[in-house]
Structures are given as C-alpha cells and as structure tokens.
Amino acid sequence: MSLSAASSPGRFRAQPSPVCRLEHLQGCQDQQRLVFEAALSWYTRVWIPDPDEVWRSAEIIKDYKVGDKSLQLKLEDETLYEYPIDLQGSELPFLRNPDILVGQNDLTALSYLHEPAVLHNLKVRFLESNHIYTYCGIVLVAINPYEQLPIYEQDVIYAYSGQNMGDMDPHIFAVAEEAYKQMARDEKNQSIIVSGESGAGKTVSAKYAMRFFATVGGSASETNIEAKVLASSPIMEAIGNAKTTRNDNSSRFGKYIQIGFDKRYHIIGANMRTYLLEKSRVVFQAEDERNYHIFYQLCASSSLPEFKDLGLTCAEDFFYTSQGGDTSIDGVDDADDFEKTRHAFTLLGVKESHQMTIFRIIAAILHLGNLKIQGERDGEVCSVSSEDEHLKNFCSLLGVEHSQMQHWLCHRKLVTTAETYVKSMSLHQVVNARNALAKHIYAQLFNWIVQHVNKALHTTVKQHSFIGVLDIYGFETFEVNSFEQFCINYANEKLQQQFNSHVFKLEQEEYMKEAIPWTLIDFYDNQPCIDLIEAKLGILDLLDEECKVPKGTDQNWAQKLYDRHAASQHFQKPRMSNTSFIVLHFADKVEYQSEGFLEKNRDTVYEEQINILKASKYQMVADLFQEEKDAVPTTAVPKRAPRINVRSAKPAFKAANKEHRKTVGHQFRNSLQLLMETLNATTPHYVRCIKPNDEKLPFKFDPKRAVQQLRACGVLETIRISAAGFPSRWSYTDFFNRYRVLMSKRDLSKNDKKQICQTLLEELIKDPDKFQFGRTKIFFRAGQVAYLEKLRADKFRAATIMIQKTVRGWLERTRFRRLRRATLTLQCYTRGHLARRLFEHLRRTRAAIILQKQYRMLRMRRAFLRVRSATLTIQAFARGMFVRRIYRQMLMEHKATILQRYARGWLARARFRRARAAAVVLQCHWRRLKARRQLQALRIEARSAQHLKKLNIGMENKVVQLQRKVDEQNKENKLLNEQLSMLTSAHSSEVEKLKKELQQYQQTQQGDGKQLLSLQEETERLQMELKRAHGEREVMEDSHSKERDLLKKRISDLEEENALLKQEKEELNSKILCQSEDEFARNTVEENMQMKKELEEERSRYQNLVKEYASLEQRYDNLRDEMSIFKQTPGHRRNPSNQSSLESDSNNPSICTSEIGDTEDVIQQVEEIGMEKAAMDMTLFLKLQKRVRELEVERKKLQAQLEKKEQESKKSQVIEIKTEVTSEHEDFAYNSLKRQELESENKKLKNELNELRKAIADHATQNNSANDVQDGYSLLLNQLKSANEELEVRKEEVLILRSQIMKAAQQKEMGKNMVKKRESISPSASWPNSDRHVDQEDAIEAYQGICETNRKTEDWGYLNEDGELGLAYQGLKQVARLLEAQLQEQRREHEEEMEALKNQVDFMQEELEKQQQAFLQTLQLSPEVQVEFGLQQEITRLTNENLDLKELLEKLEKNEKKLKKQLKIYMKKVHDFEASQTMVPVERRLHERNMQVAVQRKEKDFQGMLEYYKEDEPLLIRNLITELKPQAVSATVPCLPAYILYMCLRHADYINDDQKVHSLLTSTINGVKKVLKKHQDDFEMTSFWLANMCRLLHCLKQYSGEECFMTQNTAKQNEHCLKNFDLTEYRQVLGQLSIQIYQQLIKIARGILHPMIVSAVLENESIQGLSSVKTVGYRKYSSNAGDICYSLDEMIHELNTFHSIMCDQGLDPEIIQQVFKQLFYMINAITLNNLLLRKDVCSWSTGMQLRFNISQLEEWLRGKNLQQSGAAQTLEPLIQAAQLLQLKKKTWEDAEAICSLCTALTTHQIVKILNLYTPVNEFEERVTVAFIRDIQTQLQGRNDPTQLLLDFKHLFPVLFPFNPSAITMDSIHLPASLNLDFLNKV
C-alpha cells in the first residue's frame, strides 16, 4: 500500500506480492545497500540465513571492498564461512544491532529493523530474562511460557493501574490499562483483539484482560457484575474448549465479549458474541485429542447421587469421547473442574433445574453416539433395536417418544408436489444423520447457554461505553484442511486487513502531528484475497450455489472454482489432485480438501427428528429447537466518526441473494461483517500470542515455529511499515544530551538546542532523506542511530587514546628520573660497601687459617678417641645387637604392609597435588583472561570524560609542587656530595695509617714465633689431662642426673594428668550449666517472640474487622440516605434527630478494646528563621543546631526548677489559714478597678507592640549584621523595662489607695470585728510589684507586718476619732516594708550584675592574652601560613558572632511571643469582664458605684465541670463538632473539644444522670462520624478528630478511678475523677472509632502521596547529570500531556505538612510515629513494585540516584526525631535494591556478596532485578545468565514467598498507648469564638 499525505490521506495502494517476503522487511534496497556498504568493516556483525536456526550471527573478519563478491565471516562457533553477496540483487546480509540495544521492550526501538533482529530480541527476552511480553509498536507480543508465572496478582494490577503504556515493562495489564484510560479520556469504545495459534495462550490473555477490568472498574453497586463476568470463563471453557494436539485447553470457537461501563467507568454489564463453533468435534476427534471438556467433566462426576439417572459411566465407554485415545489430561482434575463449572452456573443465576436439564442433554448426546445401528441388504436398509439401552436413555433423558425416535433415526420423509412418502436410509446416511443430530443438539445447547450468560450479564442501566475483548482463532494450516480451517483463515484475512490499515493510520497521525512529509510507503494489501473469498461468484458464493443444486457434489464445486478463479493470483490448483484447491493467504498458502465442504456448509438436520425434540415433555428441551426469526443483532456505532477514515480502494462486495435458509458460510460471513463494523467503530488494541514450541515445554524457544507465527500474525508487517518510514525518534533535548560530544564548542555556545541538533545532523549525515526534523522530535531512518552511536564511540575512543598517550609519557618520564636518582645513590653506597667488605674478607681469611689449623688437630684427636670408644662398645654389645637386628627385621616385615599402604596413599596424594597444580595453572590462565577483560573495561572507563576531569583536577598545583620539590632535592644533593667528598678523603688517610700499623705488628710477631710454639705444646698436654678428669666426673654426673630427671618427669606427668582431669571436670560442669541456661533463655525468647507475633496478628485481625465494620456502616448510611431521599415529598421536612445506628453499638459490651493512649500538651515549635539565615553554610548550621539543642535542654531544666519552686510556694500558702468574706459589692468595686488597670495596661502594651513590630520590620529590611541585631535587641529591652516599671508604679499607687479606702470604710462600719478584717484580705489580690521577683521570706515578713498592724489598729482610735491618721501610718509602714524588700532585691540584682561584669572582664582579658599570643606566633610564620591562619581565626570569630546573634534573635522572638500571649490573655479578660457586666442591671451597678465600702472577695474555685441543659445538646454538638473548624481552636489548648466534652460529661456524672451521659456520648460519636464522612479527603480535619477522640479516650481512662490509670495524676486531677458511672464500654467504642479515623487518615495521606512517589523517588534526578538518556529512540503510544512530574522536595514538603498538622493538633507522638511508619512502607512498596516492573530504571545510575533520594528521606526522619518509629527500617528492601543495582555482578564472590547483602529482598525479586538490569552506555556489561543461575543456586535454601510485588495497601496494626495529660480541668479557658455561652462553669 502507499499513502500520499498531500493528495489523498487515508487511501492506500495494493502491493501485488502475496506473502510477507524478507525483502520487504529490509525496507528500501538502495538505502539498505548504502548503509550496508558503509558498515561492512572488520568486527561488524551480520545475520545470515540458517536452515536450522533460521538466522545465525556472524562476524566480518576482513574489510569489505567495493567489487568483492563475498564476505569473509566467522561464526559464533569460531568456524570460518564465505558468504556470497550480490549488490545488484537483493541478497544482502542484515546488520546486527549493538549489544546495548538487545533486549528492548519495544521492537520498533531497535536501530536495525528486520526479521532476525526481531527474532533475536524476542529470544533473548524470553530465554535469558524470562520476559514473555514485548511491544511491537501498538502490538503486544505474548509468548506462552507453558509455566505459571507470579506476574498476575492483585498487586500487579494495582501497579499497572494509572500508568501510561510504555512507562512499565510490557504486560497484558498495560494494554488493558491503555484501553481503559483511552475510553475514559477520549470517551470512545475500545477493543482488545487477541489472536494466535491454538496453544499460544489467547484464552488466558483474554481472561487476564477481563480480570484487570473487573478489578479496576469494579461495579459501584452490589450486583457483583465483575464476578459474573469472570464466572463466565469456566462455563465457556467447559462447553467450548477441548484438548488438541497443540493445546490442552484450546478454544474451538471465537468470542467477542463487550464489557459495559457507566459514566463513572464502573462495570455495569457485559455481552458475549460467539463465532463458528467447531460442531464436528462433538462426533469426531483426531488421535490424541478430546471432545469438549464438559463431556469428560460430567463422566468424572457420574458417581454423584444426583447424576445416577443419567446412566453415565467413564468416558472410555462412549464413542463420542473415546475416539482420540487418552481421555485424561495431565494435571487436570475433571471432577474438580466440573464443580467449578456448576458454581459458575449458580453464580450466573442458572436455576438448579435448568442445570440438571443441561447435564441431561449432554448425557443424551453421549448415549446417542453409542446407538447400535444394524444394517440390512448390504447396508441399504438399517434399523435400531427397541431394546437398545442407549436409545432408551436418550429418549428418557430428552423426554421424547421412544418409538418415533427409533423410527425416524433410520427413515426420512420425502415431499413432492403430488405425494409424501417415507424412505429408508442406508447405513452411511443413518450414521451421518445421527451425527448431524448430535451436532445440532449441542450447537443449540451452546447457543442457549450463551444467551443465558448474556442475560445474567445484562443490565438495565444505560451503557456509556464499552471495551470489547476478542478471543479468536489464529491462522491455521494442517496436513488436511477442511471447511473449519477455511472459515478461520477467512476471518484472519479480514482482521489482518483491519490491523494493517490501523497501523498505517497511526503512523500517518504521528507524522502529521510532527509535520513530517511522507509518501509512497508500500505494504501488502490482502483485499484481493478477501475478494476471492467473499465477492460475487467468489468461493463462498459458489459454495452456496452448489449447495442449492439437488445433486451437488464437492467435486463439481471444486471444478467450478478451477474454471472461475484459475487466473486469480491468490488461487492455485494442485498438480496431483482434482478435489483440492490452494489459496494464497497473507501468511502462507494453504491447500484445502473440498471433501465435506458442502455437507458442513448445509449443516443438514432432518426435520422429523427436530419435530420429535420439539414435542419433548421437558420445556427447556422443546425451547431449544423452536424456530426463531431470522434477525441479525445490530451493534451500536458511535455517532462521532473517527477523524481519519481508512477504506479500501476497491468497492466492497455485494452479497448474494438471500436464500430461504441461510448456509453456515453465509451466516459466518454476516457475523464476521458485523464484527468488523464493531471493531472499526472502536479503537483497537492488539495482542499477538506466540507458541514457542510444539512440545509444550516451559521456556523453550523454537526459532522456526516463532518465525512462522510472526509472519502470520502481522508483527513483521508492523516492523516493515516502521522500517519503511522513520522508526527511530528522539526528542531534541535527549538527542542534544546524548550526542553533544560530537558538537563543536561554537555550536554549544548557542542557546537554541533545536538549531544545534539540525546543524550537527546536516554535518554528520549528508543524505537529507535519512532524517527529518519534526516539531518536537527528530525522526531517523533505520540504521542511522547505530551510525551515530558508532561516531560517538569513535570520538570517545580517539579522545581516550590521546589522553592515554599523554599520561603514559608523563608516567614513563617520571619513572625514568626516579630510577636515575636511585641508581646514582645505589652506586655510591654499593662501592663503599664493596670496599669495606674486601677489607673484612682479608682479615677474616687470615683468622680462618689459624682457626683451621687448631680445629683440624682437635678433630683428628677426637676422631681417634671416638673410634676406640666405638670399638669397645661394639665388642661389648655385639651379641645384643644381633638379637635386636633379628627382632627389628621381624618388626619391619610386620609393618611392611603398613608402609605400603601409606606409600600408596602418598602416591595418590601426589597425583592429586599434580592434578591440583594443573588446575591451578588453568585457573591462573583463566583469571588472567578475566583480568585482561577487566583491564580492558577499566581502560574504557578511564576514557570517559568524568575520569579525565578527575585526573586533571589539581594537576597544575601538583606540577608546581613537584617543581619545588625538585629544586629542594637538587640543593640537598649538592650538600650531600660535598659531605661525601670530605668523608672520602678522611677515610683514605685513616686506611693508610692502619696499613702502617699492621706492617709494624707483623714484624714484631715473627721474633716471638718460636717461643710461642713451645708454650703451646705444654698447654696442650695440660689440657689433655684436665679433659680426662672432667670426662670421669661427667660420667658420674650424667648417671645421677638421668635418674633424677626420670623421677621428676614421672612426677610432672602425674601432676599434668591430674590437672587435665580437673580441667575436664570443670569444663563439663560449665558446659552443663551453660546448656541449661541457654536452653531456658532460648525457650523464653522464643515464647516471647511467639506471644508478640500472636498479639500482632490478633491486633491486625481486629483492626481489619473494624475496617470492615466501618465500610459496612458507611454502606448502611448510604442506603439509609438514599431511602430517605426516595421517601421525601416536596412539602415535607425531616425532623431533626439524634438517633443513630451507633446507639445500639455503644450499649454493646462485647466490643473489643484497644489500647489507646494520649499525648502530652503540644510544645510550641520554634519558627523557622527568616531569609537572612538562608546563606548560612552547612557547618555553621550544624553548630547552630547543636547550640539550639543545648538551649532547649537548659530551658527544660529551668522550667522543671520553676515548677518545683511553684509547688513549694503553693504548699507554704496552703499552711496559712485563709477564709473568704466576699460580697457582690466588693466584687464590683474590685472588678471596676481591675478593669481600669487592665485598660491602661492594654493601651500601653498595644503602643509597645506597635513599636516592637516597627523595630522588627526595620530590622528585617536591613542586612544581617551584628550592630543591627544589637540595636534592635537593646530597643526591645528598653521598651520592655520601661513598660514594666511604669506598670508596677501604677499598680502600687492603685492598690495602696484602694487598701486605704477599704480599711477606712471597714473601721467605720465594723469597728468591733477587727479579726474578721484581718481575715478578709483576699489572696487573689496581688501585692504591689507582684510581677517582679520577691523572695519568699520577704513576702512572709511583709504579710506578718500587715497582720500585726491590723491588730494594733484598735489602740489608735485616740489619735483621731475617724482613724485616718492610723490608717495613713499603717499604709506608709506597709509601703516602707515593701520598698525595703524591693531595695534588697535591687541590691541583690546589682551585685549579680557586677559579678557578671567582672566575669566578663576576666574573660575579655583572657581572650586578649590569647590573641596576643596568637599574634606573636603568627608573626613568626611565613606569609602564606599567616594568611591561612588569619582566615581560620576570622572564620572562628564569625562563627561565634553568628551563634551569639542567633541567641539574641531567639530571645527577641521569645519576648515577642510572650508579649503576644499576654496581650491575648488581657484582651480575653477584658471581653469576659465586659460581657459579665452587661448582665448586671443598671440600677444595681449605679448603687454599687455609690457605695464607699468595697471589700475584696475571692471567687469560688472552678471545679472543672460544665453544666448545660438537655435541650442545648444539639447546639453543643453543632458548635463543638459538626461546624467546628480546626483553625478556630488552633491558638488554644490542643484537643480543647475533647476536654470540653469530658467536662460536660463529668457534670452529668456528678448529677448522676445516666440518660444525659448516654445521649452526650452517642451524639458525640455520631457527630464525629458525620464530620469524617463529610470531609473524607481532608487530612487536617481527620487528624484533628483523631487527636480529640484519643484525648477523650485518655480522659475517660485517666479519670476513671482505676489505679492503673491514675499513677501519674496529681492530687487536683484525682478530684476530677468520675464518681458514679463506669464507661468501659464507651471506651471500647471510642477505641474502635479511633481505629477507623486512623485508617481514614492513612487512606487520605496515601491518596495524596501515591501520585508523587514514583516520580519523586525513582525518577527524580536529585543529582544533576547522573542519569543518562536512553541510547534508543524511546516511543510511547499513550498521551502523557496530563502527567505531572514531582520532585523529592515536593514530596518532603507534603510530609512536613502532615507532620506539622499532626503536631499542632496535639496528636500523640506514638501515633505520629506509626503514621509515618505506614507512609514510608507505602513509599517503599510502590517504588520497589515500580522498579520490579520497569526495565528502563534498572541501571547503575538509577541505583545511585535512588540511594541518594532514600538518604534524603532518612535525613528527614532524623530531623523530625522519628528514628524510633521504624519508618527507616521499612525502606530496607528499597535500599538493598539500590545497592543491588550498584554492586558488581560477575564472579561467584559477587554472587555471595549479593546473597549476604540482600536479605530483605526475596529470591524472586533479586532475580527479577538482575534480569531487568540494563546498561545505559556501551561501557557497562549485561548480567550473564550464568551469574543469575549462581544467584539462584545460592538462594535455594531460602524459604521466601513466591509473591513478586509488595502489598502497598497493607496496614500495620495500630497501637494507641495510654498517655495521660498534665492539664487540670479547672485551668481550661473557653474561648468566645466557640459560641458556647450556654455552658455554665460549676
């Protein structure tokens, strides 16, 4: 075909070639020849044809020259081969792709696209990597492994769900996901076309696709339609599948299943269409084949009681099931499969009675086949015995008349115009009629079952879209091909035509989108072959006409075919047959036998037999044979037509005239036409199943069979179309990054990458037709990418050689200079050593001569004495010697055999050592070979640019240093030469002096020689006598010493033996003790571990039950809401109700408890420092972090001390007696004064706060310098001090005047009760300057003075009758005492300040001395060192200043926060006071203002209870739960709603109102559930209520009165315990609710993080430039426009958000740790699953990137203090996977290291990663199959699960530890923003 994009898009031109030839796969011959001639050089690898392996790899060993007529090749087995070539013809050998391209996921990504490349890529993936799926453009090629693989679990479905096609490894789930996604995105119906030979795995692939849709698009209702869709598979397999020679479960019919979806894309129903059931199999099976499975399943279950009436036995007893021989299948249990079939019938709603009728019909067919037909008159007349048991069973099972069936089985009715008569049939006719009846019955039953399956899958809901799965037979050719094979191949011709047009259309769309012109691309068109079959007067038309002829025969029909189609290029007549014909199909030419065509096309069943069956007493049997209207179901076609219409250039055929009765061929043609219309109206997706071998052996690849199927299924046609265009496609960015090494510096300086790429390609590839520039991509012809890779490798090789040359020259020169210096030094020292050694030799030679003379004399004398002594000894012991000699001889003869044994053993060991030595030699040679290869790899690595950069780093500095060292060594060499010359002259003078002395000594020695000889003789004589005496003495001593030694030895032996016995005894005792202790400890540890494991399992089961209960409850709520909506009328309103289904649950005492804990009050986190700290370096930041931690520890210590002092002061105040005498008038007076004070203070604080904000804002705009910070800090301190001082003065004045007025009024009215006046002093009234620190002793003394003054007031009445003078005196005295206390405090503070200043002065002096010393030392150093030392000092000083500035800034922030808090408290108090004042009547306030006496009153203590009325409960729930926003209580105590609810609950307990308690708790639980249901995706809201429910539960425990929960309570908290009710059951309900909220929280976080994980952790390039682009043009066939790429920082930001939300809301730290442990497990599982399913990310660079990203996550955990949560441990499998990608993978030692390291990965995961490992450049090596086998061998002992992927939805059991609160109920303040004014404090 050819397409002209300019003239007629969508039209194509027929290519006359009938088959897919190899020349077509190679593309344009001129282009191939040019590429071939350019690439034919030494070491180039090519493919040559081979009769056994189809294609064989060879290597060119001699460069090709123009004009050569052959190629010199070397095969893989090292044999030489001469391959003839003809460049004028088309016999060109195919070029082989580089190894780095082998094993690609997509065949179209190969650089050289041809048949051998495709076959080799499939073979490598299938055999070496065990990958059964491979993409070929839009086609998924699936190879049947004949082995169950763990790649279809639920986790794999979830892993592929939501992924783009091409992002993950090829899989049937990826195709299904692409269809599902396109249906949802484009709103267009989809189809998945699964085809292939019998046994290739079509049915299994279709089944897995439907399983994917059932899982991903599960039904929204409770109809379980997805389960019904899956349940239809076992039924259809039972009635439509059978065993053939090629497949044990071959589908003998075609089916198209439409799965319907609603607008939300949930499955709502399905519909099934079947095509061409092989009815002939019912009555005939070839050898080693079986009938349909249902017959054997029913026979295997015939012993069941309900099947006794069927009259069945084993399958061997029936003719229709025993023709193939063996009736069983290995590994298949027919009885078990029958139970599955019955269960599927039940699930689809088939009644039990209908099931029994189905089984009766099937049994009747078996009995029909066993009828005994008796022939008479040479077979012209036949009959069936009326006593035939099988006939009786057949009639009884079908409920028909016995006699009628007996008669009409052997007779037929002939109807003419004149009369009707009955004719007997011959034996052959009767057998044919019986078989036709059996086939018809089975076909009708098959159709009935299909109809009922469709009824069960039908739905009344409107279908929005559908996805169709077509499981249809592939192209078939056998030795004998009949009508069934003809129809099958006809259907495949139609499908292939549709496939070709769709592939062509996609290629055109891609080029049009990129604005690439392309024209005249020829490909094979099978329209002529289709016209031959279906056009007017075609094969089917002639067959139908021959069937109309009364005496038509197969021979006549064949003759008509010869006459009509002899000239057709797709039709041939066999030479040796007149009844056969040959059709040239697109895949192969097939010879069909015409015998039986007419009979099968007519499908004749006699009407009399059908009428008998219609009269059956069983309604279902009668319904099977009722005639239906001849209507053809129509398929809805979408209104919107496709954008590009592809249609044939020839007009479609016109159907023949409609007959009264349609033939099988006509029906099949019509159904096929409807199928093609359906497929053309949908977007197709193709799955081509390949059968690797005919022996059904697992992972065995037969190249011949594979090539046949690849040619037949259209895969090679896809390759050829791609190769004819531009198969390799690169984005401009990827191309620039990959081939920037080929660009010049001038080009790289440009900013436009697109222009740079265009310039480069125009320079490198001269032929402009070899590439095209699109809008976003560059398109290359086949082979051009390999050419660019060769240029890139050559560039790297040339650069590496240049670098090696330079480096090696430098190394050799350096080595030579070093050797020369060493040689001169060695020569100098060697010559001196030789001279000294000569002198020593001469001296020793003279001494040796003297010693030899004396020694020889002594030796001769000793020899003489020895001989004499030996002679005497021999004479004395001769006889004993002879006796011993005889004994020794006997002993030696006795032990000769022992010696022989050892000698032979030694010889054997010697042979072994020789063999081992030989093996060692071989190993050495082999290791040398491996080392050379490794050296070569290292050399290649050394050529890389990164390596060169590392070598060049610091080279100039090193050269300068070396030059400096050379100069210094030259100077030292000169000094040494001078010293050596001086030593040489001194040594020579010393030698001459010694020579003179030696000569003088020799002269004096000669004169004394004679006298010396005489003295020597005398000395020798004396020495001989002395030796004799010594000898005698030694003999005596020796005998004595021997006896003594023997005794000592014996004693020592006994002692040693005793010691050994004691030691053994002690060791045995210790071993016994250790064993007993170890066994006990081991048993204890094992029991503990078992108990923990059981506890975790029990907790997990309980929480799963809770989760299920929550889902059921949610479903119940949904149904109830729907019912309420249905029941409502327009004018009706629903009354508010607090009732809920949980009301009964809350009263159920059987609900399981869970350990729930609470958290401490949330500690306010320090806010992050502003922009001025962003430039701080890492070391300084770490120091500041350390400093912050130290300050935090100090703050906690001071806080603890402060709390301790406060407790002591409280105890001291408790000791004092205080009573309250209060009144409303005094309260008003006190409150009015207090309000005036607070208003004035509030105004001042506002002014100060504004000044503070202004100062901070001014400070933020300036640079971060020490002076600015100091000025801001001093300003803040001055303002704070002045404010405090003024505030204290005002307080003193107000309180003094108030006390004087009050006491004057009291003296007038109550002069007699002075004691009461003393007691009326309110402890709530604050002392003057109370905010300042006053010692406890001073305060007590002042208080005692006031009391004493009050006692004396009675005696001062005489001074003034009004008592004014006494009151004034008392006031002055009190003020004086307080001033004295303040003065002492100021004095103490002054002394402390002075002491601090002195310490500071001392410190400054020490610092000054140190600086002076350092300065003096610096002056003595060299200038360079001075500069370096100065820099170090400056860095240290700046660091210290930064630390000080940070401390000042922290103080400023703390003071600012403190002032804000004070301001908020004052504002709240003012608002509360104003609100309370509005409730007082005006008259009362005026009366109280006119009162002159105001007595201070102490308020009653708040008891921590809140009172409300019953009718206010809905308002409480609404304001506190339903409508509450977390932000409304963010500035208050964490978990405030929980505390308020408990205080309300406590009041209900206090008044003993059980109804109120029950109602409040039930309403609370229902309200929380309602809020969570409304905010199902709100993490903040869910976290908020999880914290509050946990806190409420902790409060119920803490104040329950149980001792186990009150251990940490204070005395005040114990007063707040519940008194009347035991709320244990409600604690259980709250615990269950907390688990549900926790699970919802995890679900929300998972939904937020899930889209980020793969992009952020696995694909994010945190280390820039590490990841390399792919070396192939990567092609994606799904739209990625909507994809969002997330970085790791974004994901960490989300984690920070989660953490801050949970911490701010007061969630327990233990629960936070469990949340992040769960989230990190999910991150690990999703990332690892994605890694295990993607080949493109399994590389060394990805491992490095992944390890860095994991370290970032671990650093985040450490920063958040979550190390103890176990979250880091959940990342261990991912860490080990990253390390596995980085480890060396070559030797046995590497395998051992991998096995010892990867303990958290299963064996299957390790092998999967190794199989997926892909080099990203030519310097890496693939993992060999042998290495993977070594890994599997070493991991055999592991007991790992077979599951490949991790369950990322797995939830760890959550544990809520008890965590009491330190907050007391009476200290909690109710903010006005909550609108809880109806709550009254008790």
Looking at how many chains there are and whether they match, the oligomeric state comes to single chain
Distance between the termini: 94 Å
**Which percent band covers the strand fraction?**
5-15%
| Largest sheet entry | 7 strands, mixed
Global geometry: extended
Unreliable runs:
1-32, 629-660, 1126-1182, 1214-1230, 1263-1269, 1312-1337, 1339-1343, 1345-1364, 1478-1500, 1668-1675, 1677-1682
Helix/strand/pairing category: alpha+beta
Provide the spatial order of strands within the biggest beta sheet. Answer: 6-7-21-8-17-11-12
Discrete helix count = 55
Overall average pLDDT: 76
Rg calc = 52 Å
Total beta strands: 26
Percent in helix: 55-70%
Quickly describe the structure:
The protein is an alpha+beta fold. It is 60% helix and 7% strand.
Defining key terms:
single chain; about 1900 residues; alpha+beta; seven-stranded mixed sheet; five-stranded antiparallel sheet; 55 helices; extended
